[in-house]
Here is the input.
Amino acid sequence: MFKRMGGWAAMLSIVCVALPASAEKLGVGDPAPALTIGTWIKGEPVDLSKAKEGEVYVVEFWATWCPPCRASIPHMSEMQAHFKDRKVTFIGISDEDEKTVKGFLEDGWDEKMRYIVALDKNDKTNEAWMKAAGQEGIPCAFIVQDGKIKWIGHPMGGLDLKVAELCGDEAYAKRAKEIQELQEKIGKSFQEEKWKDALAAADKLLALKPGDGQFGFVKFMILAIKTKDTQAATKWGHEFAKTCNDAEALNQFAWAILTEEDFADVKDVKLATVAAKKAMELTKEKDAAIVDTYARALFDAGKIDEAIEYQKKAIAVCKNAQMKADLKKTLTQYEDEADSDDDDDDNGDD
Here is the structure.
């Protein structure tokens, strides 16, 4: 299932971003290859060869199964909205099949992914862009202006700064640069195991972006896993769940508390339930993965009948076949546990 592939480590990788990998055949300054698209899932088709002078295109490679890709989607959508009037177009390209991507969008992501979505044709776009540039991991974004590659890297690692610079948005660029420098400081602090410095950088990031789901979750990770300050982690966790309105971050947060061994010392089922419920409400119970997390929180709280009820809701709204199969397996586990409890009650009566 989507949220099980990466957990808190995936969220940390988004904040502690690395510098773009060195390019091979395709690099900054080279002509942008053509987009060979099989299906335009959402938005109007784009022909880069017909771009007008000064127009900026962000070509991002992603997949539905990739947690960092999912976590970066809201940021991409925010940038598309902010830079729309400055002639910037965002395009997300997946190599998955049409049914999978459409199912993903129908599972609640259509409202979150507010930019063009397309499917690669026979891996030709991936070959011409990702492999040619020596990029092996996703998400990965390319900025194109006037037919040339202007930047290559992780969508959360300086993309906003470069787009702002190309558009001449000085105020946005200044703020984006501050955020990038703080992200790099967190990354360096983790490498050097300087947790106080990492925590200070996280607090500064939250001052720049109050309520940010990614930065708030990272602060919780630092407190819970690195400094082992259980009291502070629990206190911040409750504040985070109250102030954050990022459903995906809340979902990852709740799931980590419920399932990750690293969070065993701060396993607060009540907190996880609050976070998962809020995420579910934010997505109007349309995101199967989030409803599943809420069901898990109920199950861990001993509310098995309610867990079964919401697990059935998760199955009902799920459009992805593989994910639905996993959800059904979990439902069976919950139902077996309920039957076991009934048997225990019957034996007790005897």
